[in-house]
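Q&A log
Question type: sequence-to-structure
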Amino acid sequence: MSEIIQHKDTVPDSCLGKRLDQTLAIMFPDYSRSRLKDWILAGCVMVNNEVLARAREKMYGGEIITINAEVEAERRFEAQNIALDIVYEDDHILVINKPNLA
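Response status: OK
Response body:
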């Protein structure tokens, strides 16, 4: 299952001269710079209602940034409480007898 991300905000004047990817990292710190850059390259980021697909575009402050992106849900694995057949254990090695479940 995926999640739709939608954000709209105004670039602060403090971002004058910064690149688009740097500006997004400041404005949306909940997302990694690499994810933000991927969104830029995928055309998911609009500046003043125009898609900018280059992370190096300079910002002046006052631009309207719109992000419309889709994020795949993270797969999480839960540990299971199972009995382990420990054959040998010391400070450096652990040997476990894994039964053949074929």
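Response note: The radius of gyration is 23 Å.
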